[in-house]
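Onboarding guide, step 5: your first structure request.
Type a short instruction followed by the sequence, for example:

Predict the 3D structure of this protein.
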Amino acid sequence: MLSESRLKQHKLFFDIEKENEYVSEMNRLGWKLERVNFGWTYEFSRTNREEYTTVIFAEESSKVSETTAFAKRCGFELIPHCFDGLRDVLYLCGRRDEVSPVFHNDSKSLMRAYRLTHRRFSVLSVICVLFLAVMFCELTAFFIIPSVSSGKNPSEFPLFFGLTVLFSVLTLIFAVLTVIFIRSALGAKKKIETLKKKENEKQKRRRAKKDNPKQEDEVIHRRMAAVDLTNRKASPEAEEKSE
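The system replies with structure tokens like these:
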């Protein structure tokens, strides 16, 4: 839905980084996030290009109020999101020239977000698998019980046909949801492993600098020496050309 000053879009994300990229791109185009409904309906209002910036931040439920207060001190406002059942995801928006760069998604906050995502989709996957098992048992019962009790073809019963179609559709829906939730859980786990590797590499470099404080200076000196040597080689050539 598009108008001169309001915009509503329907998007479904299972990755917090991709969702943040989408909202940031809308900010760049001159749309400020105003509200999120049902986890997939995004409402925007018209602003100047790149006037606002948005941070989607995941936090443990017990620390949401503390994080929200800190974000407000950094110049962000909390964007309401309703009817999605989530209280651990914060949509924070602020003017680009007024917000503090202190508040942002670093590797630790992203790992926390993906842990919450992995936990949520793992639970949803188990629930969907249980529903699939129930649907399968019901469909099996529909085929076996009528034929055993009456000796007739189950498809001759109108009620049986309607229930079979209903449970078949429900089985298909839960099967698709199961695949989506499992893939999302595995994707979140993969992201966590990638971020852990990057964080470990950063810590190794920090420890190396701490253990060998002169190492970086030696590298700088070698580079400066190489530059001096290059300048010395270039200077005679310049003199010859000038002559």
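Each response can be followed by summary notes, for example: Residues 217 and 223 are 10 Å apart (CA to CA).
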